[in-house]
Amino acid sequence: CALFDPAFSAREAAVLRALGLCLIPENEEGKHDVQGEATVFYMVHCGKALYNNLLWRNWSPAALSKLVIIGNSFRGIEERLLSRILERDYSYIAKVLKGVEEMALPSHPRYLDTFNDTSVHWFPLEKLQELSPEVWDFVEEPMYQDCEDLEIIRKGE
């Protein structure tokens, strides 16, 4: 289990290490490579750029099929953003929508405004292989220069 949150205090980090958990030493901005290992990412309430960066870093059917993401609904992101903004700023989310399976977690009546958009996402290899080959050709690192709603803590911030 590896953890990272740019808001961890020194005391929190020390407690997590004492519990035997591994802390990722630097802010990867969500660009974590699964290196062929099956990996679950718990990314509740993260900004769209973090999901987009994670997809970019693992942009192949083989790697994505090893991912499970528990986080904000990709379908919800698609519904709330204009398609031109989604494709310009979060192109990897936009491109993988036809290759992802998503199941909403049941909402709790006490936390309707908090966890109402949380889903489990997985990427079946068969679905990913059905996407056009051009989808996999584009592997440019996301930069977010024109992004107006960027929700990410950058390295060094």
From TrEMBL:
<dbReference type="GO" id="GO:0005737">
    <property type="term" value="C:cytoplasm"/>
</dbReference>
<dbReference type="GO" id="GO:0005634">
    <property type="term" value="C:nucleus"/>
</dbReference>
<dbReference type="InterPro" id="IPR040044">
    <property type="entry name" value="SRR1L"/>
</dbReference>
<dbReference type="Pfam" id="PF07985">
    <property type="entry name" value="SRR1"/>
</dbReference>
<dbReference type="InterPro" id="IPR012942">
    <property type="entry name" value="SRR1-like"/>
</dbReference>
<comment type="similarity">
    <text>Belongs to the SRR1 family.</text>
</comment>
<feature type="domain" description="SRR1-like">
    <location>
        <begin position="1"/>
        <end position="122"/>
    </location>
</feature>
<protein>
    <submittedName>
        <fullName>SRR1L protein</fullName>
    </submittedName>
</protein>
